[in-house]
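Q: Sequence in, structure out?
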Amino acid sequence: MKNIALLVLLYVCQSLVANAAQDSMTYHYWDLKASDIRDEYQFRLLELALQKTVSSHGDFELTKNNEKLTSLRSRRELDRGDVINVIALPTPTWQPTTINPQAPFVIKKPLLRGLLGYRKLVVRKSDLPKFQAITSAAQLQHLAAGQGRDWEDINIYRFNNYSVVDNADYFNLFAMLAAGRFDYIPLSVIEIDDIMERFSKYSKDFVVVPNIIIYYPFPVLFNISAKHPELVSRLNQGLDIAQADGSFKMLFESYFSKELEKLKATNLKVFILRSPEVPYSLGLDKPILLHDYQVIQ
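A: Exactly. Output:
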């Protein structure tokens, strides 16, 4: 009888192992190639959330798709859910799945804690005194911001009655600023140093305004293929666990310590804009990463 019991136990164990292997899910991630640090962080956060849920959801395999894809092509692949089934995208597309069954699910937890929405201003050096003397939102609204074609930020500026020139190409933004086509270029604190270095030939002509920040809710969220609904509950749970145990914040600060340090500057003048597409429930209506600042209205 003991031998039979041992054989039964062995069979059960083997079945459990086999089932666990079958239940191991493979997920394929793709990012926008916005910046190396942001792309790497978002991938590691996804991996962290999956690791936090191994006990409840089983093992996983995670791959990173490094293909250069257009935004439209990446969306199509996300809909298919085969070579790509999770993407990190800025500003959510709030599409109800009852209307479009193939619309991706959106995990409504900001991956960058709103950091992408903190904008520093690049201006001509000769205009720096004018910007430093600004004391009202109306003054800044009458100056023209330069933006690239089809940038999602354009709608936010116009919704808040800011003047925008939006016919620029990314590679000629600085040339157009030098030519006086607009007055300033607002750039995220995540990207501004890299962009200033990339266009260093203009360094003698331009400067970053040290005491002004434009802030608006601009979340980056995981978008999940509708063909993988199990990943939605898993990531929601995994991100909640990572937030509760502090590992989410720790990972975030390890990647963006330099940017966060800049936000600790004192006597900042902050212009807070509303984003019509971002609900207050995301908790990004205020610049939570700032410490000492004056809201300019």
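Residues 47 and 239 are 10 Å apart (CA to CA).
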